[in-house]
Design the sequence.
């Protein structure tokens, strides 16, 4: 009889500050931890259910409960759809495989040993005055990501640039603009040195991006989940934001990255707000990406131990004790 066992539970981690985007605010990261054991070895994975995709802690737990008594990474791709539930399980299976073979996941995948990647640091949506203060506090960081998505974002853009005159800035509108608002803002984004805008329009209206000028790169986030998303993005986007919680784990994320590059897209690797365990597999995925946005642990008041290392070189690959 197999000793394959899966355990999972919900956990909550308080944020250091309230985190606000165009569709709401949060004060804690609510995650699902999955642990899969075989032969006395345990692999772990973490996911963040996201209400934008009709996910809750309970729906993710229900999906995991539906799994058969034993499965592997290959069969998992058909057992669960892309999303947070499959992500936590898939990443736990990668961790289990690495620990069982006494290898790092990069070796299993056939990739070079990963190194640190400069990551964006996210400034949440707030008043212009508070966003300027936040930008000044983090002006030493080379890359700042601004959460926008309201009709009066111009003053926020100006404030952040004044607070951090030397940082590279990328903007995430979280589907909050109309095509008209984006067209009006685009010249000012260029003037203020913004180098990329993420998901300016709602995913169900992004066909308009094919009809208007895109003077700076536009990245698909809510419009891109897995490889099945790619055909609809043609002519609308220049980059894709790959998140493990959207792809349903590292297995599909690696395949999506390869196919997106082959179709001419640049790669951004992003995250939900989770712990270092959720970010760890994404550090491997982020190697060589045009933009890395794995700052989730930096937004927490408390992280897992061991945690990922962040310094002037960026976010470092995980210790094997954490993952992979």
Sequence:
């Amino acid at each position: 009889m197999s000793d394959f066992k899966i355990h999972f539970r919900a956990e909550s981690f308080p944020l250091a500050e309230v985190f606000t985007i165009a569709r709401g605010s949060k004060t804690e990261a609510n995650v699902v931890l999955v642990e899969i054991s075989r032969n006395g070895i345990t692999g772990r994975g973490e996911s963040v259910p996201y209400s934008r995709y009709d996910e809750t802690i309970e729906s993710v737990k229900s999906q995991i409960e539906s799994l058969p008594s034993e499965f592997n990474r290959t069969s998992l791709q058909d057992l669960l759809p892309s999303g947070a539930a499959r992500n936590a399980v898939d990443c736990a299976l990668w961790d289990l495989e690495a620990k069982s073979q006494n290898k790092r996941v990069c070796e299993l995948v056939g990739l070079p040993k990963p190194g640190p990647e400069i990551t964006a640091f996210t400034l949440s949506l707030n008043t212009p005055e508070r966003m300027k203060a936040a930008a000044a506090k983090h002006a030493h960081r080379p890359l700042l990501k601004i959460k926008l998505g309201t009709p009066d974002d111009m003053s926020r853009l100006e404030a952040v640039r004044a607070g951090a005159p030397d940082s590279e800035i990328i903007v995430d509108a979280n589907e909050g603009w109309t095509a008209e608002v984006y067209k009006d803002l685009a010249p000012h984004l260029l003037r203020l040195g913004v180098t990329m805008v993420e998901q300016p329009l709602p995913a169900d209206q992004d066909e308009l991006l094919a009809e208007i000028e895109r003077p700076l790169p536009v990245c698909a986030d809510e419009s891109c989940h897995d490889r099945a998303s790619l055909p609809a993005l043609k002519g609308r986007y220049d980059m894709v934001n790959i998140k493990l919680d959207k792809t349903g784990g590292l297995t599909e994320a690696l395949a999506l990255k390869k196919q997106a590059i082959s179709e001419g897209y640049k790669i951004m690797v992003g995250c939900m707000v989770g712990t270092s365990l959720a970010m760890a597999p994404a550090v491997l995925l982020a190697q060589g990406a045009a933009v890395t946005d794995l700052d989730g642990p930096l937004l927490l008041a408390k992280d897992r131990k061991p945690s990922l290392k962040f310094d002037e070189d960026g976010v470092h690959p995980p210790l094997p004790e954490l993952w992979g």
In short: The mean pLDDT is 95. The longest helix spans residues 84-101.
